[in-house]
Design brief:
There is one protein chain. The protein has 188 residues and is of the alpha/beta class. It has a domain at 46-107 and 124-187: Rossmann fold (3-Layer(aba) Sandwich). It contains four helices and seven strands; from the N terminus they run H-H-E-H-E-E-E-E-E-E-H. It has helices spanning 2-27, 46-52, 66-78, 160-187; strands at 55-62, 82-83, 92-99, 103-112, 119-128, 133-140, 146-153. It has a five-stranded mixed β-sheet with strand order 2-1-3-6-7, with helices on one face. A two-stranded antiparallel sheet has the order 4-5. Helix 3 (66-78) runs parallel beside helix 4. The protein is elongated and about 120 Å long.
Length: 188
């Protein structure tokens, strides 16, 4: 009988020590020891995914081809990424879009005046200063999670050549921002 009491007391003390170790570990902010077979999944941050990416698929979703061509050639010059022809082969999917079209539209028409019976020429000028922007969004190809996005405004220009130059400059600024993001990721 005495042996059974002694065993019961020993069991209670053992259980108490086990719980006190677990409680002390929790109070100190430590995790209790995990069995070797249980491993926690690694949570991959956007920075980690950008740093690990090697294959890139670039696509235009809306607007001019100029920003897509500029960003693609700029990224090829970095030598960091391999451009692939399908999203299935890519680590990253980069979508480029441009919106708006700034410019001046001139229209003319003619009609016959009911009073004089003569043809009257009418002309109107409309200045469209809708904002033009270039947007670049980078997605993880595995889960389509957004990893990085930025937008650049394109300066207004009257002449077609100046419009194209301003579009190129906006695309170059976007590529530069993305490059800075990648460099800050690599430095960590």
């Amino acid at each position: 009988m005495r042996t059974m009491r002694w065993l019961a007391m020993l069991s209670a003390v053992s259980v108490g020590l086990l719980f006190s170790e677990h409680g002390a570990a929790m109070c100190q902010g430590q995790q209790p020891p995990q069995p070797a077979s249980e491993k926690r999944p690694l949570i991959e941050t956007p920075s980690m995914r950008l740093a690990a990416a090697r294959n890139v698929f670039i696509t235009r979703t809306h607007g001019s081809r100029i920003p897509v061509d500029v960003i693609r050639s700029t990224m090829e010059g970095w030598g960091r990424f391999t451009m692939v022809e399908s999203p299935e082969k890519a680590d990253l999917i980069i979508e480029i879009s441009s919106t708006g079209d700034s410019g001046v539209q001139v229209s003319s028409s003619s009609k016959v005046s009911p009073e004089s019976g003569r043809e009257e020429k009418l002309s109107s000028t409309r200045k469209d200063i809708s904002p033009t922007e270039v947007k670049m969004t980078v997605f993880d190809s595995r889960n389509k999670r957004g990893l990085w996005t930025a937008t650049e405004s394109v300066r207004f220009a009257m002449k077609e050549k100046a419009k194209k130059n301003n579009l190129v400059e906006a695309a170059e600024r976007l590529a530069s921002k993305f490059h800075e993001r990648l460099e800050s990721t690599a430095a960590k």
